[in-house]
Amino acid sequence: MPVSVRSFAKINIGLYIGPPEMREDEFHELRTVYQTIALHDTIKLGLTNGSTGIEIKCRNPRVPQDESNTCYRVAERVMKTLKTRGKLTITIEKQLPVKGGLGAGSSNAVATMVGIEKLLKKRLEPLDRLRIAAEVGSDLPLFLIGGTVLGIGRGEQVFPLPDLPPINMVVATPDIGVSTPKAFAAWDGLFGGAKNGSGLTVSEQTSTLNRFSSEVYSWLNGTSFSAATSGVSARGGNRAEALLLDLVRTGIENDFERVVFTQFPELRDVKRAIEREGSSYASLSGSGSTLYGFFGSKAEAAKAAENLNAKDIPAQATVTLSREEYWKSIV
Ligand code: C5P
Fold it and tell me: How far apart are the first and last CA of the chain?
């Protein structure tokens, strides 16, 4: 029986990039908070006996259909680890932008892993799941947790955080594909102080990383403190609002904005347009080009999306997805 898996998107709430000197590989040390959201692609999987191989089907020409596809790379490893033969067909029904900063390719790959387990009625060991995910890309492991997730290392070391309450939001998806490796290279060109003698020094960048940890800590903890002391309900909209106020106060930011907005100034304009619609917090997600904004209610988010679309900015209203909702809705 074929299986169908929802492959949810993520946003980054703050993303700090450390100096290249902090690691011995080609990667940058990161600090970020990932949050899964309700927008999703759908992955359909089928297995037939008699032949072997992996076939990727997708109507979107921007999605590779060969062995470079993250779904292919995960499927190959999962089939090998589970010692399974047969012809696997992976159909990707695309709704999410490609190279949009919503982690769609990574999410598709993890959905493929979950789907193969369901198809074969076999489970991978938890450590094999994590190993395969981290091998294929830095943004995959977060989708093995879902909800609100702390990401460190190259982004692949993930830790579940207490889930944020549901937050209504708008996601704007300008038709621009941003290359993540190029965005990192642009960051090094501008801020890789120790290497090119300009920008930030290694110790400045390292202390920024440390500041991120304390900002996340005060954001998450300061809120429960202010909510408790001000008598704000621990559930529902009030708590979401209190969390957002704290988030804005910490000034948590996405470092990629500093290079991506220079390269694509129209993305800065989209962020401003979201803010003008009354968003309490707006940001680039990952290296973009997606921008998102949080709103106080579903109606406000819907109205903002409508207004942005009227200005030719493709946008849709959605909501954040808790860990429990993520796993409940995935298959
Ligand atoms: O892990 P992933 O395949 O997403 O990374 C793609 C590229 O992005 C890497 O080859 C690297 O150039 C860059 N990258 C980085 N630091 C990270 C994550 C990715 O420099 N933390």
Answer: 14
Fold of 3-161: Ribosomal Protein S5; domain 2 (3.30.230)
Fold held by 168-327: Alpha-Beta Plaits (3.30.70)
- According to the model, what pLDDT value does residue 180 have? 93
Residue spans of the domains in the chain: they are 3-161, 168-327
Query: Tell me: the pLDDT tens digits for 30-52?
Result: 999 999 999 999 999 999 998 99
Residues of the chain with pLDDT below 70 are 193-199, 218-241, 243-249
**Which pLDDT score is estimated for 227?**
42
Q: Please report the pLDDT score of residue 195 as a whole number.
A: 52
Give every CB contact of residue 181 below 8 A, 6+ residues apart in sequence.
none
Residues identified as active-site:
10, 139
- What's this model's pTM, rounded to 2 decimal places? 0.91
Residues in the chain: 331
Q: Whose CA is nearest to atom 3 of ligand 1?
A: 137
Query: Quick one: which atom of ligand 1 is closest to the CA of 153?
Result: 21
Q: Which residues contact 117 (CB under 8 A, 6 or more apart)?
A: 78, 123, 124
CA of 158 to the centre of ligand 1 (A): 16
